[in-house]
Design brief:
The termini are far apart. The chain has eight helices and nine strands. The protein is globular and about 55 Å long.
Length: about 260
């Protein structure tokens, strides 16, 4: 049987995206199919100062300090991985190394140099998991079965950023997980697979994101299997029914907390 060559594109997020890869790489039975995991700059190309300011505005001072301490600890443990015994993973790179999956780094996933590199992999599928850059048409055209993305909402509703936040904000009793094809418009391609999970009583945004990343890994495995055996039945991702949300503002987070929700 001809190999089914897969490439992932993501960003280095030790808190949440790492959990997806822990679950996926542990459970996916054919890890040799994964040619590489590509890590692009976190949250795009914005400076560290701008990223820190955005996170401070989102979390507020108290929670920002908590998250900052945790982030620093994860970074330190990742650097000391060759010295201290590792009982758990602290980065996507660590997860990939453990499962012997190659890691690539790319400043611009649409740059011709990068595209030339991945063309050599004879790819069947490219998968976005929180990829921080928009896929352009040249990239989308490379794999034989196209590019797919996993989005933590039941599309076409809640397109855009931090969908778990916005689903909680609007009082949804269930949150979605969608695997869909990628086209040149954000979160717009045909829906390949969807699943819903109830929001648990007293759940924080942090715990919901962690739980849905684990669910997402299982859904992605189902989607890949369905693409291989041709059992998926694409559904329209109607732009007319779509809602879109950007990154929450300070006022959005304040309203979120007034509704009784917690970030962490």
């Amino acid at each position: 049987m001809k190999p089914f060559n897969i490439l992932f594109i993501t960003q280095e997020d030790p808190f949440y995206v790492r959990i997806f890869f822990e679950e996926f790489l542990r459970d996916y039975p054919r890890r040799e199919e994964i040619r590489a995991v590509v890590i692009a700059p976190t949250m795009g190309k914005r400076s560290l100062v701008k990223l820190a300011r955005q996170m401070h505005d989102f979390y507020g001072t108290k929670d920002f300090i908590k998250v900052g301490i945790k982030y620093t600890y994860y970074k330190l443990r990742n650097r000391l991985a060759g010295i201290l015994p590792v009982g758990r993973f602290y980065s996507i790179k660590q997860v990939c190394e453990h499962y012997k999956v190659p890691v690539l780094y790319a400043d611009n996933i649409n740059d011709e140099t990068f595209l030339s590199t991945i063309r050599r992999y004879d790819l069947d599928l490219v998968i976005s998991v929180a990829a921080p850059q928009v896929f352009r048409s040249a990239l989308i055209a490379i794999p034989r079965q196209g590019c797919i993305n996993i989005h933590n909402a039941k599309l076409p509703k809640y397109r855009g950023m931090l969908p778990n936040f916005w689903q909680m904000y609007h009082g949804e009793k269930k949150v979605g997980t969608t695997v869909h094809r990628i086209n040149v418009r954000l979160d717009d391609g045909d829906i390949l697979l969807q699943q819903e999970t109830p929001v648990q009583s007293g759940e924080t945004l942090d715990s919901l994101i962690i739980r849905t990343k684990k669910i997402g890994a299982a859904v992605m495995i189902q989607a890949i299997d369905g693409m291989k055996n041709g059992t998926l039945r694409p559904m329209p991702n109607s732009s007319a029914e779509a809602t879109y949300f950007g990154f929450p503002s300070k006022d959005d987070v304040s309203a979120f907390r007034r509704k009784g929700y917690r970030l962490i």
